[in-house]
Amino acid sequence: VLVWTNERVVSWVQAIGLKEYAGNLLESGVHGALIALDESFDHNALALLLQIPTQCTQ
C-alpha cells in the first residue's frame, strides 16, 4: 500500500465495488502512503474525497 500511486488507489477503489465514485480520486493526490501513514486520513476522509453521499456512509 505504501508505494501505491494515485492510479493504483483508483484501481483499488474500483475493485472494492465503488467504481461509480473512483473517478473522483483522479488528480486528488491521494496515494498509498497517505492512506497508510496519515493518522488523520480515515474512512470519513476517503468517503469525502470519493464524494459518496452522506446517507450512504452512516
From TrEMBL:
InterPro entries: Liprin, SAM, SAM/pointed_sf. Residues 4-36 form the SAM domain. Gene3D superfamilies: Transcription Factor, Ets-1. It comes from the Eukaryota. Signal peptide: none annotated. The keyword Ribonucleoprotein does not apply. Keywords: Coiled coil, Repeat. This is SAM domain-containing protein.
